[in-house]
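quick q for whoever's on today - can somebody do inverse folding on this one?? i tried earlier but teh output was garbage lol. tokens:
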């Protein structure tokens, strides 16, 4: 599974389908937050500094 490889996770910590689905959901949220942070950092780097001063 690409997501598990991307986050360097080899196996889940819990047993049972329901618990594994919850853990994979948390991993997907982690991946999305990582991508969002990268987008925000790039956007902040392109934002003119003159507009930040009030």
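ok took a stab at it. sequence:
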């Amino acid at each position: 599974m690409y997501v598990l490889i991307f986050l360097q996770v080899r196996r889940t910590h819990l047993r049972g389908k329901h618990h594994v689905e919850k853990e994979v959901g948390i991993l997907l949220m982690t991946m999305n937050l990582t991508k969002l942070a990268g987008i925000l950092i790039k956007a902040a780097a392109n934002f003119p500094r003159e507009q930040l001063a009030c």
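fwiw Residues 27 and 42 are 23 Å apart (CA to CA). also The mean pLDDT is 78. so keep that in mind when u check it
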